[in-house]
From TrEMBL:
<dbReference type="GO" id="GO:0009318">
    <property type="term" value="C:exodeoxyribonuclease VII complex"/>
</dbReference>
<keyword id="KW-0963">Cytoplasm</keyword>
<keyword id="KW-0378">Hydrolase</keyword>
<dbReference type="GO" id="GO:0005737">
    <property type="term" value="C:cytoplasm"/>
</dbReference>
<keyword id="KW-0269">Exonuclease</keyword>
<dbReference type="Pfam" id="PF02601">
    <property type="entry name" value="Exonuc_VII_L"/>
</dbReference>
<protein>
    <recommendedName>
        <fullName>Exodeoxyribonuclease 7 large subunit</fullName>
        <ecNumber>3.1.11.6</ecNumber>
    </recommendedName>
</protein>
<feature type="domain" description="OB-fold nucleic acid binding">
    <location>
        <begin position="7"/>
        <end position="103"/>
    </location>
</feature>
<dbReference type="InterPro" id="IPR003753">
    <property type="entry name" value="Exonuc_VII_L"/>
</dbReference>
<dbReference type="GO" id="GO:0003676">
    <property type="term" value="F:nucleic acid binding"/>
</dbReference>
<comment type="similarity">
    <text>Belongs to the XseA family.</text>
</comment>
<feature type="domain" description="Exonuclease VII large subunit C-terminal">
    <location>
        <begin position="126"/>
        <end position="316"/>
    </location>
</feature>
<comment type="subunit">
    <text>Heterooligomer composed of large and small subunits.</text>
</comment>
<keyword id="KW-0540">Nuclease</keyword>
<dbReference type="Pfam" id="PF13742">
    <property type="entry name" value="tRNA_anti_2"/>
</dbReference>
<dbReference type="GO" id="GO:0006308">
    <property type="term" value="P:DNA catabolic process"/>
</dbReference>
<dbReference type="InterPro" id="IPR025824">
    <property type="entry name" value="OB-fold_nuc-bd_dom"/>
</dbReference>
Length: 387
């Protein structure tokens, strides 16, 4: 005989679910345990896992709407404290814990999220030294990403004006803490990256609590810093504050003022160095000129000696030739009492045959000239024969 009240599996499961959901004590429970059997459904964003202690375990689920608020990534072996409600999933009849909030036990949620993201990005190589870009030596435009009302921008402006007044400050105003800070920081980095309107960037803010500085630990901000084609100097908080942005930046500065000092050269020191270089160059040039003058003097003396020696030889040779020429000078013969007879037109007469009786001739002597008429000719050969 079949009982009058027969329930289906669905009815049983729904009844049990109504009992669980009807108990107000189960509407909000706090449970601590170790995560196991963790599954992250990346497409839906839901998290499925178990919480266990030394003896028992309970199934748990955290829907995407709640999981998105987590600041760390749950994983097996982490002890957590969760807040949620107890209900059952009627399809399987399995009761489970529906988690709405979760935080690590022992380590703070932010500290764990920081370490997890740091390790993840380190494995990807975002912090590698090989990725770091060198800063420009003489920047003309410095992009600054910070609050427009804080002391950071004023410190950077003052240091830059004192050290390198040639540089222009380009401020991109952003919120540096709170829920909207991270998207604004990313937008500012993308602005400078797409336009390349600056030579170097400074991103940062003044000191504050870990909560205040958290925007600079957001994954989107850190990735935007690492992807920026311009050199980036991180100046977040005080010297003891370290954010993930510091690791991704090309250079970390302990303070915003120090960031400005790293971004620009010291104009006064550069000026003094240039003056010293100019003096050294002038002294070097003077020394070089003196050396060249000495070399020129030595060469001039050598050249003069080289020119004088052949000149003296030529003068001696010329003196010998002059003497020989002087010996051949007919005038010199005339001084010894000899004469030279020429015709009227100046031709030297070497023989009586060149002249006729009655013609006039000129007789050149040392002290003058005689104009004579030939009365008689006598041939030398004839005289010798007569003798």
């Amino acid at each position: 005989m079949i009982p009058s009240c027969v329930l289906t599996v669905t009815q049983i499961n729904l009844y049990v679910k109504s009992l669980l959901e009807g108990d107000e004590k189960l509407h909000c429970v706090y449970v601590t345990g170790e995560i196991s059997n963790f599954t992250d459904h990346y497409r839906s964003g839901h998290l499925y896992f178990s919480l266990k202690d030394e003896k028992c375990a309970v199934k748990a689920v955290m829907f995407a709407s709640s999981a998105r608020r987590l600041r760390f990534h749950p994983q097996n072996g982490i002890k957590v404290l969760v807040r949620g409600r107890i209900s059952s999933y009627e399809v399987s009849g399995q009761y489970q814990l529906y988690v709405e909030e979760m935080q690590p036990v022992g380590a703070g949620e932010r500290a764990l999220a920081y370490e997890q993201l740091k390790e993840k990005l380190r494995r990807e190589g975002l912090f590698d030294a090989e990725r770091k870009k060198e800063l420009p030596r003489y920047p003309t435009k410095i992009g600054v990403i910070t609050s427009p009302t804080g002391a950071v921008i004023h410190d950077i402006q003052n240091v830059t004006a004192r050290r390198w007044p040639l540089a222009e400050i380009l401020l991109y105003p952003v919120a540096v803490q709170g829920e909207g800070a991270a998207p604004q920081l990313v937008q500012a980095l993308q602005y400078f990256s797409s336009r390349s309107c600056a030579d170097v960037l400074i991103i940062g803010r003044g000191g504050g609590s870990a909560e205040d500085l958290w925007a600079f630990n957001e994954e989107a901000v850190v990735r935007a810093v690492a992807a920026c084609p311009l050199p980036v100097i991180s100046a977040v908080g005080h010297e003891t504050d370290v954010t993930l942005t510091d690791f991704a930046a090309d250079l970390r500065a302990p303070t915003p003022s120090a960031a400005a000092e790293l971004a620009v050269p010291d104009g006064e020191k550069l000026k003094n160095a240039l003056l010293q270089t100019a003096v050294s160059m002038h002294m070097g040039l003077e020394n070089r000129l003196n050396d060249e003058r000495m070399q020129l003097d030595l060469l001039s003396q050598s050249l003069q000696e080289a020119l004088e020696k052949p000149t003296q030889l030529r003068q001696q040779e010329l003196g010998v030739l002059a003497g020989r020429l002087e010996d051949l000078n007919p005038l010199r013969v005339l001084r010894r009492g000899y004469s030279v007879v020429t015709s009227i037109d100046g031709q030297v007469l070497m023989s009586p045959e060149k002249i006729h009786t009655g013609e006039q001739v000129q007789v050149r002597m040392d002290q003058g000239t005689l104009l004579c008429t030939v009365d008689k000719k006598e041939n030398l050969h004839e005289s010798e024969n007569d003798i």
